[in-house]
Design brief:
The complex is a heterotrimer of chains A (about 375), B (about 525) and C (about 350). Chain A has about 375 residues and is of the alpha/beta class. Chain A has two domains: about 140 residues, Rossmann fold, CATH 3.40.50.2300; about 150 residues, Response regulator (Rossmann fold, 3-Layer(aba) Sandwich). By secondary structure, chain B is an alpha/beta fold. Chain B has three domains: about 240 residues, Rossmann fold (3-Layer(aba) Sandwich), CATH 3.40.50; about 190 residues, Rossmann fold, CATH 3.40.50; about 80 residues, no CATH class. In chain B, strand 9, helix 6 and strand 10 form a beta-alpha-beta unit. The longest helix of chain B has 17 residues. The radius of gyration of chain B is 25 Å and the shape is globular. With about 350 residues, chain C is mostly helical. In chain C, helix 1 packs across helix 16 and helix 4 crosses helix 11. The longest helix of chain C has 30 residues. Classes of the chains: A alpha/beta (about 375), B alpha/beta (about 525), C mainly alpha (about 350). Chains A and C meet through helix 1 and helix 3 of A and helix 3, helix 6, helix 8, helix 11 and helix 13 of C. Chain A: Its main location: membrane. Chain A: It is a lipid-anchor. Chain A: It is found in: Cell membrane. Chain A: Belongs to the BMP lipoprotein family.
Chain lengths: ~375, ~525, ~350
């Protein structure tokens, strides 16, 4: 009896799946084809853009938020509205969501779909090969498809300036770096930062630590605690949410002792607000990674019909892709001047900032 | 007679099941009133109605002539009804006084006033001859003493009517004697007692009247002195009961179990069995008599492979099975009715049918090539259920749902049906009523008559005396003497179990005899 | 009320209750519940693509649920499904990428590698429990972290400092053009068939074999089982190993079906932990696990469509989904209530 019931349930399940699958696909192919034809007709007149966040989410105070800002700015500048035919985003709760999200936006006939984060590389590669009528762009990774543009940043150049600032401002001659996970992007931050510090004074110690995660504030806090306790006075973080822990450690120290010499250099967007402690602030400056500028730039090109499909665009200091944020007086004028000098040298090519930290060059 | 409690025509239902059907119990002032019934007859239900845990569907309760509505145990407490539970409700690492005042702590200016309470406990203890140290920790005192703490607890709360639920279940013979004295003392101090039990001897010894219930129905109330154990038993069971199981003389033949110089340690590596020697032959029942904790458990576990043997040998039919795994032991022809049926005997969450197959599930015809045939198991279990009179809804009922007696019958069926050369029965009748006891004793004797060897471990003297052909007395891990039941008596056996030699025992007995003459 | 009626009624009532409360949450937050649930429905069943993706999402949940349920049924609490899944994922991807073999050998070999790795990862806690009575909960939790970081390190080493493995070869892939074309390029893969086969296998092991009899018996009562001649240690280890193999298979499904490779991870996948809920929702029975996995997988995947089609923020969606699961979990309370009511009625 039990056996029969089970068998029945099983076959019903399988049959239902196949049936639904079969009829679903038939209908859908037809409707999609229609949609695409209409869509391609409209595309020239009505440009629309959307993005898929990685697991950080839209309000990560980091590059997802920055990318969304770029899309919103672009939308406002072109009188677009949020939603279909305008601009929109979808949020991913896990890696398995990237493909459905990218696919969903392509099916909603957005002209251009951004994928934010290197984790989306494989997913975008797969979807771009299937949805050939949609244009895609990925940030921090390279996707080799004719309808996909790749956006990279020279994080090492901005980080180099952060390193210079830290080296010029440190009193203890000890600075720190907190990275999220070890990967090529974060390695560029580390490499630039260390190079910048050493360019000013090779004697300065740089304590480099990786938290192993972008969303573990408690680990960031522990690392910052250890660094500050060992005499480090400035920490540069490239660790997303983990970096929030670095800020809270610095703020706690500052709140307990107003004379405490602890500073944080923020990352990706201007993190000045993160560092506020009463009237003071522990944010020395922030290394800006202008995902918003890049997103807006690529959107503009696409709207004008000049979408750089199959190309890789690298945004560095010269392209305003990376920079330092306003220090709001934390860095004195004379120091700012020295930083400006370095900036010019990088722009002119006199200084070439290494992409990989020592000993972490790719083996292949 | 003046009644302190009258429960008139009480009816209590659980769904379709009538647990109490028209039961009347009247407790006279200063009386010890026994409530007698088999396991599951409805004694506990009736007392829970009196204690306010259940509300009856019919009938009425009067306390000191006034009709009352006992809605919860607090009402019962206020009416002066106290219960001495079978399973003590004591906090192990608290002192006697702390346990007694628990839930009712006296305070002085917001802080606990232990010393005042301890003083009161000491007074009560003196008044009723309980001899309890108010400051002793529960974990340090004996089971009998713990029971007195439970009694003190009810007295402390002003109980006039005490309910004793199976009070002798876990007591030694000496402690039982002392308990009976305490109950008598309570009566002289003006208390009234309801004694719940299925042990007939206790009722004869201590009670004034007996109310018998059977399968939920009130059978009637008799005056103890005008009755006999035989009459009470037949009232309780509903048929004639044989106390002393009839058996013919034994004809032992070749040796089945041979234990030589056996040494076994417990989990803390303390030697519990010390160079013990024992043998059991076909066609005889050897009883191991002894007070709990003298190495019986370790001996049985060592024979059956559940515990490692440190030194010495165990052989079955001349084949060495020392330190063999339990399965190898059972397969060499050993059946084992374990002392703790819930711990070792049954997987309580399994259906009773699975339990009946617990020793043979892997053998043909119950399974083939690693695949179990549950239909075969059901058939096999149904056979045993029928043959051994296991009262259950069927092989699929969880073992947990069966009463203790029926669980034990299933175990016995399982072990006997494998037709072992040696059947080990450890405390096979513990907690069972007379009907079940009689059934089990018959089965053991039947095995013997079929030419099997039977090893019986029991703490009950009359069981050992009645069933065994030979009694091996165990004391401190050694068999200190072997006696023939017809050549000894309970007194001598009791003294042997306490570690006296036969000579000493005879001397003590002679002395006591003299004392009696003097009186 | 018959038992069967209750069995069917309870989950239905629970889901409806959950949806109702979820609707209130949406309405109070200013979103249209009807639009929201339409989006959810379409997200799950809307078209062949959605159905394909939903089934894909259900697949690892079934296996993770089986892993937890199997351990439960044998008296063990395997919190290490997550770690066993991660090592299974890696092992499957490694075999799938590092060897070049014909598909008939390569695919089964890769799947087996995943199962074996999960089994191995569960063997250690089983051994420690059997031999030294160390509680499996503590060991398996710690083994999760060890799995996570060891696998991250292995990926890094293998990829020469990168953060993802090579892609598996087609000969090791569970995906097929047939399934893709059937479901409009969803990532549906043949793993669902493996998962359902494992459901049958678990039922068979537990309900039909002497092995299952022993495993359950040891789980319920070690003393009585030892008395009945069973080897306690062997059975504990065996139970953990089988549970771990199910978990490893769940990882293999992700590696050989959904993703085709593996990334270094900052945290757990969550599938292993959701597996605990799946198993409990399914009352630790094989068929029940399917029910739990279908519920979890459908809601999780369908929820993606709520921000997409109904503009409801992710956070509200998460609350709604959690409410539905919460009410289904409360189903046991509803069941209790129903059976009490029906008992009372019978009594009268």
């Amino acid at each position: 009896m039990a056996k029969r019931k089970f068998g029945l349930a099983l076959s019903v399940l399988l049959a239902a799946g196949t049936l639904l699958g079969a009829c679903g696909s038939g209908n859908d192919d037809a409707s999609k084809d229609n949609g695409k034809k209409e869509g391609s007709g409209e595309k020239t007149s009505e440009f629309s853009v959307a993005m898929v966040t990685d697991v950080g989410g839209i309000d990560d105070k980091s590059f997802n938020q920055s990318a969304w800002k770029g899309i919103q700015d672009f939308g406002k500048a072109n009188d677009m509205e949020k939603g279909d035919g305008g601009y929109d985003y979808l949020q991913s709760a896990g890696e398995e969501d990237y493909i459905p999200n990218l696919n969903a936006l392509a099916r909603r006939d957005f002209s251009l779909v951004f994928g934010v984060g290197f984790m989306m590389q494989d997913a975008m590669d797969e979807i771009a090969s299937q949805q050939k009528d949609t244009e895609f762009a990925i940030i921090d990774a390279v996707v080799d498809q004719p309808n996909a543009a790749s956006i990279l940043f020279k994080e090492q150049e901005g980080s180099y300036l952060a390193g210079v600032a830290a080296a010029l401002m440190t009193e203890s001659k000890k600075v720190g770096f907190v990275g999220g996970m070890e990967n090529e992007v974060i390695h560029r931050f580390e490499s630039g930062f260390v190079a910048g510090v050493k360019a000013v004074d090779p004697e300065i110690d740089v304590d480099v630590q990786y938290a192993g995660a972008f969303d573990k504030a408690e680990i960031g806090k522990t690392m910052a605690n250890r660094m500050y306790s060992s005499g480090v006075d400035i920490i540069f973080h490239a660790a997303g949410g983990t970096g929030n822990g670095v800020f809270s450690e610095a703020k706690e120290r500052k709140a307990a002792d107003a004379d405490a010499n602890v500073w944080v250099i923020g990352v990706d967007s201007d993190q000045y607000d993160e560092g506020a402690v009463g009237d003071t602030n522990v944010t020395l400056t922030s290394m800006l990674k202008r995902v918003d500028i890049a997103v807006e730039d690529i959107s503009k090109r696409a709207k004008e019909g000049k979408f750089p499909g199959g190309e890789t665009h690298v945004y560095g200091l010269s392209e305003d892709g990376v920079d330092l944020a306003d220090s709001r007086g934390a860095i004195p004028e004379d120091v700012m001047k020295k930083i400006e000098d370095y900036k010019e040298k990088i722009k002119s090519g006199e200084i070439e900032v290494p992409e990989y930290p020592e000993g972490k060059e790719p083996k292949k | 007679m003046e009644y302190v409690i009258e429960m008139l025509n009480i009816r209590k239902e659980f769904g379709n099941f009538v647990a109490n059907d028209n039961i009347t119990l009247q407790l006279g002032k200063g009386e010890i009133h026994a409530l007698l019934g088999e396991n599951g007859a409805g004694k506990s239900t009736l007392m829970n109605v009196l204690f306010g845990l259940y509300q009856p569907e019919g009938g009425e309760i009067r306390v000191r002539g006034k009709k009352v509505d006992i809605t919860d145990p607090n009402v019962a407490n206020d009416l002066g009804i106290g219960m001495v539970h079978q399973h003590f409700m004591l906090v192990e690492n608290f002192t006697v006084t702390e346990n007694i005042i628990l839930g009712n702590e006296p305070t002085k200016g917001g802080s606990l006033n232990i010393s005042a309470a301890a003083k009161k406990v000491a007074e009560l203890s003196r008044q009723y001859g309980l001899n309890v140290d108010p400051y002793a920790k529960i974990e340090d005192i004996s089971v009998g003493m713990q029971q007195r703490v439970e009694i003190l607890k009810t007295l402390y709360r002003g109980a006039e009517i005490l309910i004793f639920d199976e009070p002798t279940a876990s007591l030694t013979p000496q402690e039982i004697t002392e308990l009976i004295a305490i109950m008598r003392k309570l009566i002289t101090e003006g208390k009234s007692i309801i004694l719940i039990t299925h042990k007939l001897q206790e009722i004869m010894d201590v009670s004034d009247r007996v109310t018998v219930i059977r399968k939920g129905k009130g059978i009637g109330t008799v005056i103890t002195d005008e009755s006999s154990p035989e009459e009470l038993a037949s009232l309780m069971v509903g048929r004639q009961v044989v106390f002393k199981t009839e058996k013919g003389p034994s004809h032992p033949t070749e040796e089945v179990l041979t234990v030589k110089d056996l040494v076994v340690t417990d989990s803390r590596n303390v030697e519990k069995v010390k160079r013990l020697n024992l043998n059991v032959r076909r066609g005889e029942i050897v009883g191991i008599a002894g007070i709990d904790g003298n190495g019986q458990s370790e001996l049985i576990e060592a024979i059956t492979g559940l515990r490692k043997v440190k030194a010495g040998t165990v052989a079955i039919n001349g084949k060495d099975i020392t330190n063999k795994r339990p399965r190898q032991v059972t397969e060499s022809g050993v059946g084992h009715i374990p002392q703790d049926r819930h711990k070792h005997g049954l997987v309580l969450d399994f259906p009773i049918g699975h339990n009946i197959a617990l020793q043979t599930y892997y053998q043909k015809p119950l399974s083939k090539g690693g695949i179990i045939d549950y239909k075969a198991i059901d058939r096999f279990a149904e056979g045993i259920i029928e043959q051994y009179d296991v009262r259950t809804q069927g092989p699929h009922e969880p073992a947990r749902a069966l009463s203790g007696g029926n669980q034990q019958k299933a175990i016995i069926g399982r072990e006997v049906e494998r037709d072992p050369d040696l059947l080990i029965a450890a405390l096979p009748t513990r907690g069972l009523d007379v009907g079940a006891i009689e059934f089990i004793h018959r089965r053991l004797i039947e095995q013997r008559d079929n030419g099997k060897a039977v090893l019986l471990v029991s703490f009950e003297l009359d069981e050992v005396m009645n069933v065994s052909d030979r009694i091996a007395v165990i004391y401190d891990g050694m068999i200190i003497d072997t006696v023939i039941p017809s050549e000894t008596d309970e007194q001598e056996l009791g003294l042997l179990m306490a570690g006296h030699s036969r000579k000493e025992a005879a001397a003590i007995q002679a002395e006591e005899g003299d004392d009696k003459h003097v009186q | 009320m018959s038992n069967r009626m209750i069995n069917i009624l309870v989950p239905v009532i629970s889901v409806i209750l959950g949806l109702l409360v979820g609707a209130i949450v949406m309405a109070v937050s200013g979103y249209d519940p009807i639009l929201g649930y339409t989006a959810l429905w379409n997200g799950i069943f809307g078209d062949s693509y959605a159905i394909g993706e939903t089934i894909r999402q259900i697949t690892p949940y079934i296996l993770a649920g089986l892993a937890v349920a199997f351990a439960f049924r044998t008296g063990l609490f395997n919190i290490g499904v997550e770690g066993q899944l991660i090592v299974g994922w890696f092992a499957a991807v490694y075999v799938g990428a590092a060897f070049d073999l014909p598909k008939v050998i390569h695919l089964p070999l890769s799947i087996l590698a995943g199962a074996a790795a999960g089994a191995l990862w569960a063997f250690l806690p089983g051994l420690l429990k059997a031999k030294m009575k160390i509680h499996e909960v503590i060991v398996t939790i710690m083994m999760n972290y060890i799995a996570l970081h060891v696998v991250n390190a292995l990926i890094k080493t293998w990829s020469g400092g990168g953060d993802k493995t090579e892609r598996i070869l087609d000969s090791a892939s569970l995906r097929s053009d047939f399934l893709a074309s059937l479901t409009d390029y969803s990532r549906l893969h043949y793993g669902i068939i493996i998962a359902l086969m494992m459901v049958v296998l678990m039922w068979f092991l537990l309900e039909k074999t002497t092995m299952g009899f022993e495993l359950k018996s040891v789980g319920f009562n070690e003393n009585a089982s030892e008395y009945g001649g069973m080897k306690i240690g062997k059975n504990i280890i065996l139970a953990m190993v089988i549970s771990g193999a199910f978990a490893g298979l769940a990882g293999a499904m992700e590696g050989l079906g959904t993703f085709g490779n593996m990334y270094t991870r900052g945290g757990f996948t969550g599938i292993g932990f959701d597996g605990i809920a799946v198993a409990l929702l399914g009352a630790n029975t094989p068929l029940g696990v399917i029910f739990g996995a279908v519920l979890f997988g459908s809601l999780k995947y369908g929820a993606l469509n709520m921000p997409n089609a109904a503009q409801i923020p992710e956070e509200i969606v998460q609350i709604v989904i959690a409410l539905v699961i919460f009410f289904v979990a409360c189903g046991y309370a509803i069941r209790l209530l129903l059976s009490k009511i029906s008992k009372k009625k019978e009594a009268k």
